[in-house]
Design brief:
There is one protein chain. This protein has 442 residues and is mainly α. The protein contains 20 helices and no strands. Helix 5 runs antiparallel to helix 6 and helix 5 crosses helix 9. The N terminus and C terminus are likely disordered.
């Protein structure tokens, strides 16, 4: 018995070591990606003032970035399989750094190139990290591992909110963009020593085909559970994109100065860090993930409706900063905190070896939401001259998803429930032997 226990502990340590290294690497990669994606929204008031442009152009920029992200996530599966998740993580950071440098040019062409190059590059950071972590994470730890990894996104938002205004004040908004681009390139270099260790599963014979786009979408829409996750991703990512793109500019319009707006943005986004872990823990051990996501959907609907009420002066001409901060915290705890539990569910349901591709398919629906959200919001801002209508419209898809998930069929609470009897709890979540079990439970 003692020999069996020793063998189990040794196997657990063997699994834990690569998992922790991979988690640290992917956490760093996604932090860089989050900072690079968020910085344009932080410095947007300075850019708009210099160029004499309307605030609606912020939505156009992020809409273009979402369109590029959609194409990248739909087609990245073959590249991840061919070159490896670690290499494609490096490619993501290099492209994002190039996008930041293009934005520093300052003209319409530069910002267009920044949205396309940077947005497309940053979009593949999540499928690559899911592919890698899905391969090395034990099923019993997968929800927490994915949730911890996804805390890198609000961590990046937090850094961008605090450092963005400071860098812009010291070096101008162009200097801030260039410094962030250089940091992304440095992050790609730091990952290089890990490539031989984690890209040993790459398939050099794999080729990209145009049919990959259709296959990626078919892989998620033909399975009811993945289809529900895709629709949830559409609603959640749409609200998150509007919130991160417009919250600082919205606060400036309410009368706050840029430094105060950036600080408040960072404070409320910081709440998403513990919330992501909390939702993953609840979904793993106590509440069905479907119900957790339903609660998040309804919570973000309430939050954005309250944001619209503040914009229209409802319940008072001017809301105090604590009230605005509370509303922002509700949106942050829901619309900026759903990723870990949704991505871990996606990894559980994905066929063996295709976590990256399936994740890209689910996230492509999220990118449609990120594309539609800022565009619709900017259109309503332009036509109405205020923020209230835009926030109210954002609540509609979230409310629909929340009701749909509440009415859905029951899902298992634990990842261990979907394993075949012979599967060990310390084997990676994407074991081929568990493929059938994944596709028949949810």
């Amino acid at each position: 018995m003692s020999l069996e226990k020793s063998a189990e502990k040794a196997a657990s340590r063997k699994t834990l070591s690569p998992m922790l290294v991979a988690l640290a690497a992917m956490f760093g990669q996604q932090t860089f990606a989050s900072v690079g994606k968020t910085l344009p929204a932080i410095v947007a008031p300075l850019v708009l003032a210099e160029l004499g442009a309307d605030a609606a152009w912020v939505g156009i920029y992020f809409g273009l970035a979402a369109a590029a992200s959609l194409i990248a996530q739909m087609g990245c599966g073959s590249f991840i399989i061919r070159h490896g998740a670690l290499r494609m993580s490096q490619v993501a950071l290099v492209l994002l750094g190039g996008g930041m440098a293009a934005a520093a040019e300052g003209g319409l062409l530069g910002f267009g190139a920044s949205a396309v190059i940077g947005g497309g590059g940053a979009a593949i950071s999540t499928p690559t990290s899911s592919q890698l972590l899905g391969r090395v994470s034990p099923p019993r730890l997968a929800p927490l591992v994915f949730s911890i990894k996804q805390t890198a996104v609000p961590a990046g938002l937090l850094l961008a909110g605090f450092l963005g205004p400071a860098m812009a004040a010291a070096w101008g908004w162009r200097g801030a963009m260039l410094a962030t681009g250089a940091a992304c390139l440095a992050g790609a270099v730091v990952l290089q020593p890990l490539r031989a260790r984690f890209d040993d599963d790459r398939v050099a014979s794999r080729r990209f085909r145009l049919s990959d786009f259709r296959a990626t979408i078919a892989s998620v829409v033909t399975t009811s559970d993945l289809r529900n996750l895709s629709f949830a991703c559409f609603a959640f990512n749409g609200i998150q994109s509007v919130f991160t793109a417009y919250f600082v500019t919205y606060l400036v319009a309410l009368g706050y100065d840029l430094a105060a707006a950036g600080s408040l943005f960072s404070i409320v986004v910081a709440l998403a860090v513990p919330c992501r872990v909390l939702w993953g823990w609840l979904g793993s051990f106590h509440i069905a993930p479907r119900l957790v996501m339903a609660g998040l959907a309804l919570g973000m609907a309430v939050g954005v409706v309250a944001m619209g009420a503040a914009a229209t002066g409802a319940f008072g001409a001017a809301w105090p900063i604590l009230a605005i901060g509370l509303v922002g915290a509700i949106v942050s705890a829901t619309a900026v905190s759903w990723h870990g539990i949704l991505l871990s569910e996606t990894a559980r349901l994905a066929p063996a070896g295709r976590v990256g591709a399936v994740t890209g398919g689910v996230l492509s629906f999220g990118q449609v939401g990120a594309l539609c959200g800022p565009f619709v919001f900017s259109l309503l801002l332009y036509t109405t001259g205020g923020y209230g209508a835009g926030w109210a419209v954002c609540a509609i898809p979230a409310l629909w998803v929340g009701i749909t998930l509440l009415r859905g069929r029951r899902a298992p609470v634990s990842y261990q429930a979907v394993q075949p009897p012979s599967a060990s709890n310390d084997e990676p979540v994407t074991r081929a032997a568990a493929g059938e079990a994944r596709n028949t439970t949810a």
